[in-house]
Design a protein that fits this description.
This protein is α+β, with helices and mostly antiparallel strands. The protein has one domain. It has helices at 2-5, 14-48, 79-83, 94-99, 106-114, 121-127, and strands at 57-64, 67-74, 87-88, 91-92. Helix 2 packs antiparallel against helix 6.
Length: 129
């Protein structure tokens, strides 16, 4: 992974950055009721299913434009599954976890299937990542 971090930095054109900011703000406003509903649903699930307890959001290290950054997603995995996930050079490999439905929370299965676990990534776009 170190060889990826040492890549030359890529400058984002100003017009694209402005488009990204306006687009992500618009999307966050548009999807804010859905995001709020997901957060409330996750909190309710944690009350009834102890295996689903844990943080609402999940952070994963990725590389973009030659820089490391953390993406943010809704946590769809049980904490016990994340602790046993295979790691390589400090990176979790969650694709293997997704294949076994036992590793996912009940709400996580729905979020993964509908790609709603990706909604918090608009915050990454807003930050320029």
């Amino acid at each position: 992974m170190d060889e990826l971090i040492n890549l030359p930095k890529i400058k984002t054109p100003l017009a694209k950055r402005i488009f990204d900011i306006f687009g992500s703000v618009f999307a966050l406003i548009l999807f804010s009721p859905v995001i709020l509903l997901i957060i409330i649903s996750m909190m309710i699930e944690q009350v009834f299913f102890p295996s689903a307890r844990g943080p609402i959001f999940y952070y994963e290290t990725r590389i973009s434009f030659g820089e490391e950054f953390k993406i943010i997603k809704f946590r769809i995995f049980k904490i016990s599954a994340l602790k046993t996930a295979p790691q390589e050079e400090g990176c979790l490999h969650t694709k293997e976890l997704e294949k076994n439905k036992i590793n996912l929370t009940y709400l996580g299965r729905f979020l993964r299937r509908t790609y709603l676990d990706e909604l918090p990534q608009f915050f990454n776009i807003l930050k320029g990542r």
